[in-house]
Design brief:
Layout (H helix, E strand, L loop, with lengths): L5 H7 L2 E4 L2 H4 L7 E4 L9 E5 L2 E4 L10 E4 L23 E11 L5 H6 L4 H6 L14 E2 L2 E2 L3 H14 L13 E9 L5
Parallel strand pairs: 1-3
Antiparallel strand pairs: 2-9, 3-6, 4-5, 6-9, 7-8
């Protein structure tokens, strides 16, 4: 079966998701997201809008157009906001496979892994980040955790709260749409 070209996927995309650089860094492992509101439905094809920078022709340079993504590097002078990204600059395309509603605090350990944290990495390399397995797995902001699940949940809560405002923060436990998707491959 022939892979579609990037241009073919761009034409199929009628929707998008805007993400910050921290979430964009998770794109290679992420297959699920939670949103307060979304127009995504099962079968939709969408692309990720992320913070970017253009170097090259658009800047009057002789070099061909090069797109830099903030998720990959922080050292560029001027970033364009993710809301400005058009499909031609996108690098991640997805198809929605499930949409459901739940309360934010109903997230499971398995769903945290789908939110982009590479849980297998932590299963294999536990000793690289555990300080004393008998006492705690790790710490976030000097808070100690007795299990990997507690540590992973705190990671995810901090990620959610980094963008959510009241009354939609973790402690508020709002209803959210849970969107599960798969990445679409294309010819490069």
């Amino acid at each position: 079966m022939r892979l579609p070209t990037k241009e073919e996927l761009q034409k199929r995309c009628t929707k998008n998701l805007t993400v910050n650089a921290e979430v964009a860094k998770l794109a290679d492992n992420k297959t699920q997201t939670r949103r307060l509101d979304t127009n995504l439905e099962v079968g939709d094809t969408f692309y990720i809008k992320e913070t970017f920078n253009l170097n090259g022709e658009d800047w009057g340079c002789a070099n061909p157009l090069k797109i830099n993504y903030k998720a990959d590097r922080e050292s560029v002078y001027k970033w364009f906001p993710s809301a400005w990204m058009i499909p031609e600059y996108a690098r991640h395309f997805y198809e929605v496979v499930e949409v459901r509603e739940e309360y934010l605090q109903d997230i499971t350990y398995e769903d945290i892994c789908k939110e982009g944290k590479n849980c297998e990495y932590y299963d294999i390399y536990d000793t690289g980040w555990m300080k004393n397995k008998a006492t705690f797995y790790g710490d976030i902001n000097n808070k100690k955790f007795k299990s990997k699940a507690e540590w992973m949940l705190q990671w995810w809560v901090d990620l959610w709260n980094s963008t959510a405002k009241a009354p939609y923060r973790w402690k508020d436990n709002p209803r959210v749409k849970v969107i599960t998707y798969k990445e679409l491959e294309y010819q490069k």
